[in-house]
Design brief:
The chain is mainly alpha-helical and about 280 residues long. It has two domains: about 5-65, no CATH class; about 80-265, Intergrase catalytic core (hpI Integrase, Chain A). It is built from 13 helices and three strands; from the N terminus they run H-H-H-H-H-H-E-E-E-H-H-H-H-H-H-H. A three-stranded antiparallel β-sheet has the order 1-2-3. Helix 4 (about 80-85) crosses helix 13 (about 250-265), helix 10 (about 205-220) runs antiparallel to helix 11 and helix 11 (about 225-230) crosses helix 13 (about 250-265). The protein is elongated, with a radius of gyration of 24 Å. Mean pLDDT is about 90; it is low at about 235-245.
Amino acid sequence: MRLALGAMSVQSVGPADIVAEIERYKLGWVEHFSLWCVVRGIFKHAAGKKLVHASPCAGIQLEAIIGKRPPVKKWLMLTADELHAVLTAKMSPENLLSVSILAATGVRSEELFTSEKANLFLDESRWHIPASKTGPAMDIPLASVVVEWFRELLALSAGSAYVLPTRAASRAERQGGDAHVNRNTIGAAITFWLKEHKPKVRHFTPHDLRSTMKSHMRALGVSRDVSEMCLNHRLAGVEGIYDQHSYYEERREALELWAAFLDTCRRGKEWNVTPMRRSA
C-alpha cells in the first residue's frame, strides 16, 4: 500500500486530506484501523518534532468515516453429535485424518500443514511444534489414537519431508521438488464436505476446532491453565511472566481425556465418565 499523502509536504496536509486517505482504500475494518494508527503516529511524531503546529488527525473519529467495528466473530463449540459427523465425514483419507488430528490436538492449522516428519517422535508419543510468529516452540503429547492417525498419514505421504505433502506436481516443482499442501486445503475440504453432503453440522473452520477443544475440556474438568497451555496460549499478566512451567504431564492427561471423548463421539456412544477434578 502506498500512501497518497507521501507526495505532500507534512505542513500542507489538512484534516480533509486525512479523511480522503482513509476513504481511498477498500479495506476491512481492522485494516482501516491499522492505517489510521499509522497516519496518526506519523503526525504525532511530526508535531513532537515541531514540524507542524498540530496534528491534522485531531478531532477526526474513525467510526464517523467507516462506521462502527463489526461484531467480533464468535468461535463455535461443536456438539458431540456434530463431532460424530465430522469424525466420520466422507472425505479423502488425508483430509479426514487431518481434521481428526486438528480436533484432537488443538493446534493451529498451519502448524499441521507445514509440519515436517522430522518433528514427529511417534515412538515417544510426541510432536514438536517449532517456534513461529503465532507462538513459542512446544512439544505436544499425543494420545495413542492420534499416534495411529499420524502413522496413517505418514503411510500416505510417500517420500516427502512433510506430513501433508502437496498434491499438485506444479507446486512441488516450484518449491524445488517437495512442498507442503496449500494453506487453504483443509479449510476447503471442510467447506466442500458441508456443501456437498449437507450434514447436520454448523458451518465451521479449522480454527473452530480449537475453540471446540477448549470448551469441551473445561466441561470435562480440565483446569483453565492446562486448557490454555494445550492451545499454546501464554498465561495472562504477571502469572504468565513468572510461570514458566510447560504443564507437559498435565497436558498429556488432558489430551488423552479429550481423545477418549472424541473417540466416544466418533463411535456414536454417550460419554459417561466423571469429569476430572479442576485444580483451584
